[in-house]
Design brief:
alpha+beta; eight-stranded mixed β-sheet; Ribosomal Protein S5, domain 2; Heat Shock Protein 90; 19 helices; single chain; five-stranded mixed β-sheet; 36% helix; 19% strand; Rossmann fold
C-alpha cells in the first residue's frame, strides 16, 4: 500500500485558470481592479491603527491603454508588496492575500477587503501573453520589485527603481484580446463591474465610479431626492419609481441595499433581472433569484452582502442558509413597507395600485407569510365607481346580497370593463359590487385565493345571467306560449364550428337585453389557463367554447319577430340578435363577424 499527498502541478493549473475559471473573459478587469481596491483599503486600515506611517496621500486607481505597445496597465497607490510578498502571493497559486490579511487584522474594518480566493490575479493570463507586476511597498526602506511571467510556471523576479508606493500591473495582450485596447470596450466593462467601488477609479483622466453610492449611507442621511437621483444613476432612462425600501442589516448577516418599486403600466413592460447583486461594492450578477423572492424579481435596485457565498470566480451563488435568511428578510421588509404606506397614505397607495398590484398579488400566490400580511393591504377596485376595498371591507359591504346558499361570499369580477359593461350595469342595478381583475396574473390569483381565503368564491360578471350570478334561480316563466318558445329555440340554433351553443328561454325583466350570452365560469377559466400554458394546454385552448344563449322571452321584440311572415327575414333578425350577444363576449370573429356586418347592412336597407 502506498500513501502520500496529491501533487498539483502549475503546468496543469494555468491552462485551467486561463480557460475555465471565468465564464466571461472581461471579468479579469473586475478582478484586477478589485485587487487594487484591496491594496488601498488595506493601507487605510493599517494607517488607522498606526502600522503605516506617513501621509496616505491620494488613494486612487488608474487604468491606461498603450495601443503601440499593446498593453493595458492597472495602477494603484495602495500598500504595495516587498520581494518576499510578491514571491508569496504571486508564485503560490490560490494563496489568498486578502484572507491572510483578514485573519491577522480581524475586526479592523474587514468588510472592506474584497478578495476571498487568491485566484483573481491569474485571470490576467486569460487575455495576456505576458504579465508584469511592478510594486513598491509602503514599508520604510522597501525596494521596488519587478515580477514577470508568460503564463507558464517560469517567472522572473528582480529589484527595480520605482518612485511611488503602490503596484502597476502591465498586461501584454494576446492577439485574441486586442479588443481591450479600445477605450469604449474598457469603459463598458468598468461601467458594469466597477461603477460603485469604494476607491476613486480613473480612466482616460476621468473618474468613472461613485465610491459612496446611496446604499452605503444610513437612511437618515438621505432625502427623497437622493433616492430618486440614485435610481436615475442606476436606470437613466427609467420612469421615477413608486416607492423604495432601504435595507440595512448587520445581524445575523450583513445586508445593505435599496429596492425600488418601478412603475408598470402594461404586462409587456414587466422586466426581471433588474436587481444588481454586489459584494462589498463589487458587482457580482443581476441574476438574484435565490436571494430575492420570485415575486419581487420585478423590483429594481441594489443588494450588497459580503455574507452571500459565491463560487471561486464570484460569478454565481452557492447554496447557503444565509441566502434563505436574506430571502425571508427581504420579504418581511417589503411587506412591512407596503403596510406602512397603506396605513399612512392610503390615497397614494390606491393611486399606485395599478403597478403595485402585480407585486402584491404575485407574492400572495407564492408566499404564505407574505399573504398573511398582504391581506391587510391588498385591495379590490369597484369597476363602477372606482372605490377600493380590502377583502374584509368588501365582505362587509357585499355579503348581505352576495352570499350564496353555501354561505360563501361571491366576489363578482370583470376582466374587461369596457367589453363587459352591459353585464356590469345589470349587476350594479341589483346592488352587486363588481371589481376589476384584468391583469396578466389575475386568472391564477383568483384560483389561488379561492383556496387560501375562507368561504370565498369568484364569479365573472358575464358567466351567467344576473339572476344566476349568486345562486342558480329557476327564473320566472316567459309570457310566450310553449309553441312560441319551441319556435324561438329552433330559430336560435346557432351554427358555429368554434362554439358549442346551448339555448334557453327565460322570463327576464322587460328592460333586460333580448339575448344574453354567457360562458360557464369553470370551463372558461380552464380554457384561459390552458391558453397560457402552451403544449397540451394549447390543445384544450383550441377546443370550442361552451356558450349559453339566454333568450329573454319577456322582451317586446319577440312579438315582432314571431309575427314576421317572411321566414328568411325572421331568421336573419334572430341570427343578428344572437350575434350581438356573442359579440358582447368577444366570440364573434372571422367569417361570422363579416356575415353579421353584411346582414346588418342588408336588414337596415
Amino acid at each position: 500500500m502506498q500513501k502520500g499527498s496529491i501533487r498539483v502541478q502549475t503546468e496543469n493549473i494555468f491552462p485551467i485558470i486561463k480557460k475555465f475559471l471565468y465564464n466571461e473573459h472581461d471579468i479579469f478587469i473586475r478582478e484586477l481592479v478589485s485587487n487594487a481596491v484591496d491594496a488601498n483599503q488595506k493601507l487605510k486600515t493599517l494607517s488607522s491603527i498606526g502600522e503605516a506611517k506617513g501621509e496616505l496621500g491620494d488613494l486612487r486607481i488608474d487604468i491606461r491603454i498603450d495601443k503601440e505597445k499593446k498593453t493595458l496597465i492597472i495602477s494603484d497607490t495602495g500598500l504595495g508588496m516587498t520581494e518576499e510578498e510578491v514571491d508569496k502571493y504571486l508564485n503560490q497559486v490560490a494563496f489568498s492575500g486578502a484572507e491572510e490579511f483578514l485573519e491577522k487584522y480581524k475586526g479592523q474594518n474587514e468588510a472592506n477587503i474584497i478578495g476571498h480566493f487568491g485566484l483573481g490575479f491569474y485571470s490576467s493570463f486569460m487575455v495576456s501573453d505576458r504579465v508584469e507586476v511592478i510594486s513598491k511597498s509602503f514599508k520604510e526602506d522597501a525596494k521596488a520589485v519587478h515580477w514577470e511571467c508568460d503564463g507558464s510556471p517560469e517567472f522572473s523576479l528582480e529589484e527595480i527603481e520605482k518612485e511611488s508606493r503602490g503596484t502597476d500591473i502591465v498586461l501584454h495582450l494576446n492577439e485574441e484580446s486586442l479588443e481591450f485596447l479600445e477605450p469604449s470596450r474598457i469603459s463598458t466593462v468598468l461601467e458594469k463591474f466597477c461603477r460603485f467601488l469604494p476607491i476613486p477609479i480613473f480612466f482616460e483622466e476621468k473618474q468613472i465610479n461613485n465610491p459612496l453610492p446611496a446604499w452605503t449611507k444610513k437612511p437618515a442621511e438621505l432625502t427623497d431626492e437622493d433616492y430618486q437621483n440614485f435610481y436615475k444613476e442606476l436606470y437613466p432612462f427609467g420612469e421615477a419609481p413608486l416607492f423604495w425600501i432601504h435595507l440595512n442589516v448587520d445581524y445575523p448577516f450583513n445586508l445593505t441595499g435599496i429596492l425600488y418599486f418601478p412603475k408598470i403600466k402594461q404586462s409587456y413592460e414587466i422586466q426581471k433581472d433588474k436587481i444588481q447583486l454586489y459584494s462589498n461594492q463589487v458587482f457580482v450578477t443581476d441574476e438574484v433569484k435565490d436571494i430575492v423572492p420570485e415575486f419581487l424579481m420585478l423590483m429594481h435596485g441594489v443588494i450588497d452582502s459580503p455574507d452571500i457565498p459565491l463560487n471561486v470566480s464570484r460569478s454565481y451563488l452557492q447554496g447557503d442558509p444565509n441566502v434563505r435568511k436574506i430571502n425571508s428578510h427581504i420579504t418581511k421588509k417589503v411587506a412591512d413597507k407596503l403596510e406602512e404606506i397603506f396605513k399612512i397614505d392610503r390615497k397614494q397607495f390606491e393611486e399606485k395600485w395599478e403597478s403595485l398590484g402585480l407585486f402584491v398579488k404575485y407574492g400572495m400566490m407564492t408566499d404564505d407569510k407574505f399573504l398573511e400580511k398582504a391581506n391587510k393591504f391588498h385591495i379590490l377596485q369597484d369597476s363602477n365607481d372606482g372605490k377600493f376595498y380590502t377583502i374584509e371591507e368588501y365582505r362587509l359591504a357585499a355579503e348581505t346580497l352576495q352570499k350564496n346558499k353555501d354561505g360563501k361570499l361571491v366576489i363578482l369580477y370583470t376582466t374587461n370593463p369596457v367589453q363587459q359593461d352591459a353585464y356590469i350595469q345589470q349587476s350594479s342595478a341589483k346592488g352587486f359590487i363588481v371589481v376589476k381583475l384584468e391583469t396578466i396574473i389575475d386568472n391564477g390569483f383568483l384560483n389561488q385565493m379561492e383556496m387560501k381565503w375562507e368561504n370565498v368564491q369568484f364569479v365573472r360578471v358575464d358567466s351567467d345571467i344576473v339572476d344566476n350570478l349568486i345562486d342558480k334561480q329557476e327564473g320566472d316563466e316567459s309570457v310566450l306560449s310553449k309553441d312560441d318558445e319551441t319556435k324561438l329555440k329552433e330559430l336560435f340554433s346557432v351554427k358555429n364550428s368554434e362554439l358549442n351553443v346551448t339555448v334557453e328561454i327565460k322570463g327576464l325583466s322587460t328592460d333586460a337585453l333580448p339575448v344574453v350570452a354567457t360562458r360557464p365560469e369553470f370551463m372558461r377559466r380552464m380554457k384561459d389557463m390552458a391558453a397560457m400554458q402552451g403544449g397540451m394546454g394549447a390543445f384544450y385552448a383550441s377546443m370550442p367554447d361552451e356558450v349559453t344563449l339566454t333568450v329573454n322571452g319577456n322582451h317586446a321584440i319577440y312579438k315582432t319577430v314571431l309575427a314576421e311572415s317572411a321566414k328568411e327575414k325572421q331568421e336573419k333578425v334572430v341570427q343578428n340578435l344572437a350575434d350581438l350577444a356573442l359579440l358582447s363576449q368577444g366570440l364573434l370573429k372571422g367569417n361570422s363577424l363579416t356575415s353579421f356586418i353584411n346582414r346588418s347592412v342588408e336588414l337596415m336597407g
